[in-house]
Design brief:
Blueprint (H helix, E strand, L loop, with lengths): L20 H6 L10 E6 L9 E6 L2 H12 L3 E6 L16 E12 L5 E18 L5 E6 L10 H20 L5 H8 L4 H9 L6 H9 L3 H53 L8 H11 L4 H15 L6 H15 L12 H11 L4 H16 L7 E5 L6 H12 L3 E5 L7 H4 L12 H9 L5 E5 L12 H8 L8 E2 L6 E2 L5 E6 L7 H5 L2 E4 L5 H19 L7 E3 L1 H10 L7 H19 L6 E3 L1 H8 L17 E8 L2 E13 L4 E4 L4 H16 L1 H4 L3 H5 L1 E6 L13 H13 L7 E3 L2 E2 L5 E2 L4 H10 L4 E5 L11 H4 L3 E5 L15
Parallel strand pairs: 1-3, 7-12, 7-13, 8-9, 9-12, 14-15, 16-20, 18-19, 20-23, 23-24
Antiparallel strand pairs: 1-6, 2-5, 3-4, 4-5, 5-6, 10-11, 16-17, 17-19, 21-22
Helix pairs in contact: 3-5, 3-7, 5-7, 8-10, 9-10, 11-12, 11-13, 18-19, 18-20, 22-25
């Protein structure tokens, strides 16, 4: 049974029922302590002179020591244990210096323990152990203080310091110090004051033991003052903490009371309904979200922070928003792919006409997905002129795959944070558009369209195209890190579809991560079919008409295509069809009844004067003018190259907003013409005596590229030989000084532009013969394509004989 000794508070009494303490002090030197006396080991406490303290005794040897003291003269030696864990201390387990105590009262407790009230009367030192069983009996030697003769300035200072520090401690603890200070002020003996103060200090046993063993009164008081200074610091800090806690508690209680009142008022008004604890709901939502282990660890950390925060603090709102984003983003939820290849093909054919390459690629992906469900999502990039259906293809792909569709426009984006998000340290921060799109999709495997990727810019806020490198890399995007979330997110199951008009402005590193699929413009015949199947029914429905009341023939559609639109796509064609439908809608609203049949004559009244004409195809071109074929982001176009000779000194003048590459093609054409003057049938001196002016009309439009080289040399030779070129023949190709014709791009678009302009024959480089597969068979019937490898092969085709 262990012995518990606890000092609750020293009980100060002016009068002891057995003996007056002041009388004991005056007679301390004459006090005779019998020897041997019982020894009582105690834990966690050191008993000083004049100290009255209750002790709880439970160990057998200690109980017998109490009985022995009561049976004799009531004296016993109280010594502190060196180790409080020792259950049966021996001679080496207790300090050799202790305090002789007088048992004033004893009481037996119901649990068998004894409660004794003891008063310290004198310090004493163990000389030797007389007996150790069944109780400890020891011979003692009373330890007397060194004589204190007269007060000095040092002793007075120590006395005052001890009183002042004691008063300060009592004040910090909130204890009425008047009575206690009255007792301390009456004590002028340094040793006695030191014992009185030390008996009330909360010291460690080893520190209190050092004070007890000191027999120099001034030294003992000095050691007590050191402890008083430490106690003042501790008490000051404790009081400060208690005041802060009280202030915070008072404020929190006031706010809680006000919030509860506000809640009750709103409840009475019916503004709010009772809901569960938001924090508990957030915990449950996090458990159901299916977060990966690493993300869940971060979520728990932030949730613990949130629990320790005041609910109205700004930081609490930031952490709560972060956790709500973690809950709202899909981590495991995904849609089931529709792996019926024939059904997917049917859907693609319903939504889009032609575009066989794109449809074939989607069906290939579905087929591989069916055989290997763990494959990563492809990164496709549709490149083509505006209006050919690149954006709407994304919706068709999502429909055929039975996936969610998300579209994100990148046009004009210049801030990298739009992709990767803002860090949570910024006010109003939120995740980037990629994570926002995933939240919108509510699944981990949507079709994610990045529209107009070629129009991404960069400035001092960063380069968004560089941030897209990780997003669009199947080997990296399984651990995409958004700055706001700051945890990896898996994008490998997403099918990314990008669109662009041109590839030139897309960084090469980004191009390397995408599978580029080119979508050229449509032929006139394809436009008629698309207009008949998609555009016309949509415009009839949007303008509130019935299909039976509108009759537009293919010839009228062809007239709209040739005379009112000149584009690779279909946007302007749909606008013009919509304009016709609105004219009909007005007639219906005025009370006229259909059906309304649109003819070419009525078309002119509805749409006005034709905007485009087949530029003098029936007339001969003057000498020095040739028809070239050009490619633009909006599709193919025909390009007239004009050459004029005038008296001069052989100067070459170039106008028409030509780029550097196009200017170099003109210089190469002139050098080749000079070198072959005899074979081409003109005098070489003619070139030296004439200034040559080469102009490309539409001077407000910048032009560049090497593909006009063949047209330039043909127009130049035509001007030098004064022989006109055919007005129904277009040409394209890059030339060298040796006369070779090198391949160029955009062959399909250029041939489409030729057919739209009424050109019957086109000349292209021999190396571009491989592009014939891109040209529809029905288009080849309307135009004759000639391939050449050397410039000398074109003269017969141009009616310019070479010698």
């Amino acid at each position: 049974m262990t012995e518990d000794t606890k000092k609750t508070e020293t009980t100060r009494k002016k009068k002891d029922p057995a003996q007056d303490i002041n009388t004991r002090q005056s007679a301390e030197n004459e006090l005779e302590i019998p020897s041997p006396i019982p020894m009582l080991p105690v834990r966690d406490i050191v008993v000083f002179n004049y100290m009255i303290i209750p002790l709880f005794v439970g160990r057998d040897k200690s109980v017998q020591a109490i009985d022995a003291a009561l049976n004799n003269n009531r004296y016993l030696l109280i010594c502190a244990q060196k180790d409080e864990q020792t259950e049966d201390p021996g001679p080496d387990d207790v300090y050799q210096t202790g305090t002789v105590g007088l048992i004033m009262r004893m009481l037996k407790m119901p649990d068998g323990r004894l409660k004794v009230l003891v008063q310290g009367v004198s310090r004493a030192k163990i000389k030797n152990f007389v007996q150790t069983d069944p109780l400890d009996l020891v011979e003692v030697e009373v330890v007397k203080d060194k004589e204190f003769t007269e007060p000095t300035s040092e002793s007075e200072a120590l006395l005052r310091a001890a009183r002042e520090q004691s008063e300060k401690i009592l004040g910090l603890r909130g204890i009425d110090a008047a009575e206690i200070m009255a007792v301390l002020n009456t004590v002028d003996d340094p040793g006695r004051l030191a014992d009185l103060v030390a008996s009330n200090l909360r010291m460690k046993p080893d520190e209190a033991q050092k004070i007890l063993e000191c027999d120099d009164p001034l030294m003992r008081l000095r050691m007590v003052n050191e402890q008083l200074i430490k106690e003042v610091e501790v008490a000051s800090m404790q009081a400060k903490i208690q005041n802060m806690a009280k202030e915070g508690m008072d404020k929190a209680q006031r706010e809680y009371f006000l919030r509860e009142q506000l809640k009750a008022i709103r409840k009475e008004l019916g503004d709010v309904t009772e809901t569960g604890d938001d924090l508990d709901q957030l915990k449950q939502s996090l458990k159901k979200a299916g977060l990966p282990a690493k993300v869940m660890k971060e979520a728990k950390k932030q949730l613990q922070r949130l629990e320790n925060m005041h609910p109205e603090s700004a930081e609490s709102t930031v952490v709560r928003n972060y956790l709500e984003w973690l809950v709202d983003i899909p981590w495991k939820k995904k849609t089931k792919d529709q792996l019926d290849i024939k059904q997917a093909e049917k859907i693609l054919n319903e939504d889009h006409y032609d575009l066989e390459k794109v449809k074939e690629r989607i069906l290939e992906y579905l087929s591989v997905r069916k055989l290997n469900p763990k494959m990563k999502g492809p990164i496709l990039c549709f490149v083509g002129p505006p209006g050919v259906g690149k954006t709407s293809l994304g919706q068709s792909i999502a429909r055929s795959l039975n996936r969610k569709f998300v579209r994100m426009s990148l046009g004009g984006m210049r801030d990298e944070a739009e992709i990767r998000g803002h860090r949570r340290t910024y006010i109003g921060s939120m995740p980037g558009r990629i994570i926002q799109g995933m939240k919108e999709a509510e699944s981990v495997n949507p079709v994610f369209m990045l529209d107009e990727i070629d129009k991404v810019g960069n400035d001092f806020r960063g380069d968004p195209s560089s941030a897209l490198l990780e997003v669009l890399d199947p080997e990296q995007n399984h651990s995409f890190t958004d700055h706001y979330l700051n945890v990896p997110y898996d994008l490998s199951k997403v099918m990314f579809v990008c669109t662009a008009n041109i590839l030139d402005t897309i960084p090469s590193a980004l191009q390397d991560r995408m599978e580029v699929i080119r979508i050229p413009g449509y032929t006139q015949q394809e436009k008629i079919k698309i207009a008949r199947k998609y555009l016309l029914p949509r415009q009839i429905s949007e303008n509130g008409l019935a299909s039976k009341n509108v009759n537009i023939s293919d010839a009228v559609l062809m007239e709209i295509i040739q005379s009112y639109t000149r584009e690779a796509g279909l946007r302007n064609l749909e606008r013009e069809i919509g304009s016709v439908c609105r004219k009909i809608a007005r007639q219906v609203a005025e009370g006229k009844k259909g059906p309304f049949r649109i003819t070419k004559q009525k078309l002119g009244k509805m749409l006005g004067v034709p905007r485009f004409q087949n530029e003098d195809r029936d007339k001969e071109l003057p000498a020095g003018v040739g028809i070239g074929l050009a490619w633009t982001p909006h599709g193919g176009e025909i390009l007239h190259v004009e050459v004029s000779l005038m008296p001069g000194k052989g100067k070459l003048i170039l106008t028409g907003q030509m780029g550097d590459v196009m200017k170099e093609s003109a210089q190469a054409a002139l050098s080749y013409a000079k070198s072959r003057a005899a074979q081409l049938g003109f005098d070489e001196e003619l070139v030296d005596k004439r200034d040559i002016h080469i102009h490309v009309p539409a001077g407000a439009t910048p032009k560049d590229g090497p593909s006009a080289g063949v047209t330039m040399i043909a127009s130049l030779v035509s001007a030098l030989t004064n022989k006109p070129l055919p007005n129904d023949l277009g040409m394209t190709g890059e030339i060298t000084l040796r006369g070779r014709i090198l391949p160029v791009g955009g062959i399909k678009e250029k041939i489409l532009a030729s057919v739209s302009s009424g050109i019957k024959t086109v000349i292209i480089p021999e190396s571009n013969k491989r592009n014939f597969d891109e040209i529809p068979a029905e288009l080849r019937k309307n135009i004759e394509v000639k391939t050449v490898e050397n410039i000398d092969e074109i003269w017969n085709l141009l009616n310019i004989a070479s010698k």
